[in-house]
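Incident log, structure service

09:12 report received: a user says their structure output differs between two submissions of the same chain.
09:20 pulled the input from the user's history:
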Amino acid sequence: MAQPTGTYSSYDAVGNREDLSDMIFDVSPEDTPFLSAIGKGKAKATNHEWQTDALTAVSATNAHIEGDDATPAAPAATTRLGNNCQILKKHAVVTGTQESVDKAGRKSEMAYQMARRMKEIKRDLEASMIGGAAIGNAKVAGNDTTAREMGSIYTYMTSNVSLGSTGAVSTGDGSDVMTTGANRDLTAAILDTVLTTTYSTGGNPNTLYVSPTNKTVVGDFTAGGATRYVTTDESKLNTGIDVYVGDFHTLKVCPSRHIVGDNVLAIDHDFVKFAELRGITSKNLAVTGDSTRKEITWEGTLEVCNEGALALVSDTNG
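09:34 re-ran on a clean worker, output below:
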């Protein structure tokens, strides 16, 4: 059918109001499972330090004759480790005009932008601790022209680590990174091997952090302790593994968008902390023109209390 002659339609009108929804839709990931789960500590200097210790080796021949003189062995000193506090910042700058106009989806542009920056700085911190390159990020002491950087968790792990051929662990003090090896498929046997080693050293990890790809790999394990939650709702098919039950450990399998796909990280949250030097705060910056300026600051570092409580499988095809 044709439009009658002289009809005035919405295509001809110039005074119709726009229809803009008051909802703003954003699917950007903002979860930080590692940061949310680990303990919180307090740093009191830019170089935050802690100590680790270990008992002497077990002896099955600790037997002595009556009246024997004491011959005590010299105890080993504790191991002193440290990590540098990293300053994380985010900024929001909004013009006076934008703050004043009628906006859809938010009353205050500055409040909206600050809320987004808060979420972003948490993601950045999560990535600094468990993300970055597959080999991790070595700590940087910093100076007047170089920013301090914290060492990521991989730079402290030496005991319970499985790498591909030619791979090598770091020195374990945060100062250098591990050497990557040849990639291989992630298997239940590889995972069980590092978990067994962790048990032998006294560790009891409770959470397994995996990339989305490795989450599906673990979900396809046909050997080992692959445990699927079962419900009575027969209309649902649950094929993903939520809990991995090994010979010595039961671990929640937690997918992480921030962990590098190569790495599978088993964590005992009691032995990892975020040590804050300065809590997350916001402040107004000086006015330099017709705009409002705010800055968010957060300063702290990763504390790996004892790496013997952790495990890592790297160089996977994840």
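09:41 both user submissions now match this output. Likely a transient worker issue. Closing.
09:42 reviewer note: Helices lie at 33-37, 96-100, 109-130, 188-200, 212-219. The chain is about 15% helix and 25% strand.
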